[in-house]
Amino acid sequence: MDIEGLPVPVFCGVDWAEDHHDVAIVNAGGTRLAKLRISDDAAGFAQLTALLAEHGDSNDHPIPVAIETSRGLLVACLRATGRPVFAINPLAVARYRDRHSVARKKSDAIDAAALANILRTDMAVHRPLPMDSELAQAIAVLARAQQDAVWDRIQAHNKLRSQLREFYPAILVAFADKREGICSREARTILAAAPTPTAAARLTRRRLQSLLKQAGRQRGIEAEADRLHEVLHQEYLHQPPQVEDAFGQQTAALLRQLETACTNAGQLETATRETFERHPDAPVISSFPGLGSLTGARVLAEIGDDRTRFTTAGAMKAYAGSAPVTRASGKSCTVMARRVKNQRLAAAGYVWAFASLTASMGARAHYDRRKEAGDRHVAAQRNLFNRFMGMLFHCLQHGERYDEEKAFPNRLEGELVAQAA
């Protein structure tokens, strides 16, 4: 919907709270036409829609609404009506509030009026929430929840590892060379059976073989059991017996947290992958090197599937934080990394760029050129991510899949020159 081309004489601001919301409606001249406090339920939403209808709201010309959050049932219901909803940063609202009063007075009703006046004066410089499909919104919920679960798993792992260093170095030595460390199912199973080094020293080879089978291991069970038996029976420093038992109980509690975090991350990953693969944009996104179903779902969750959300590739790059920021004043000009960005998309971009180094020769060559030009590892990967975001914008707009020859033509030209020489 082209908001700029529509006559919008009335504007609405909503200051939300946990159990109620304050609503203000102003006209194009800044006169407050109405104010209302509604409850956070279906009855309150009905009051809001009735108030908007009284002031000229219709399907053809819906009244735009400004609110300080992009989440919640009220926002979801407002978006479902098809009206433009603007999520305004609370810091920006505070600055606008100072334009109308130097006394620094504040109330929910004043904030609601400030939000309405933001749309009245500067609606063109604010972006409405995208009109993403229901499937894209579901992917966003699952992908963000899975990423949060992964972060919870990392935090639980770090807490447990720090705890084990205090009294149980044997278990850390036993799984030091494993990819997942003590997050692996084998380590968690053995640690649950032997939460203290004294209990671990009593484990027999037969018992270790049983625990490895219980953890799902199918090959090399006897050899692994022998290795673990040797490591766990070596000489280590010990805490006093009662202190060790206390540490063991705390370890069991931390292990339960880790088990829950691992289970949540695994189940949410499966649900995220399945939901993402049903989306029409999945084949385009997954065609890029380094983008699997999980990372692709995280990217789609943040950019959405509303094609009007980003008018240019530069806008998407700025949103992702891959495009640099230029600060110029007089003769000084500084180019630096962008700090204000979508942190989740930036995190997914780092994983994407890193994985593409082994999946695409063109991406590797681009990364090497940036390194030779003086960029450090993170800067070179951010530059590669920036280039991928431009390609992704083009492919999504035109429904095309990734093409290595079009993406990195300089690499192919270099190979031809080298072969001719």
Instruction: Give the proportion of residues in helices.
Output: 55-70%
Strand segment tally: 7
Shape: globular
How are the strands ordered across the major sheet?
A: 3-2-1-4-5
Q: What's the number of domains?
A: 3
Nearest-integer average pLDDT:
90
The sequence of SSEs as H and E is EEEHEHEHHHHHHHHHHHHEEHHHHH
Specify the structural class.
alpha/beta
Taking the sheet with the most strands, its summary is: 5 strands, mixed
Uncertain segments: 416-421
Determine the number of helices (DSSP H or I, runs of at least 4 residues).
Answer: 19
Rg result? 28 Å
Strand content: 5-15%
Structure write-up:
- There is one protein chain.
- The chain has 421 residues and is α/β, with parallel strands linked by helices.
- The protein folds into three domains: 10-129, Ribonuclease H-like superfamily/Ribonuclease H (Nucleotidyltransferase, domain 5, 2-Layer Sandwich), CATH 3.30.420.10; 138-274; 283-420, no CATH class.
- 59% of the residues lie in helices and 9% in strands.
- It is built from 19 helices and seven strands.
- A hairpin with a 3-residue loop joins strand 1 and strand 2 (20-27).
- It is globular and about 80 Å long.
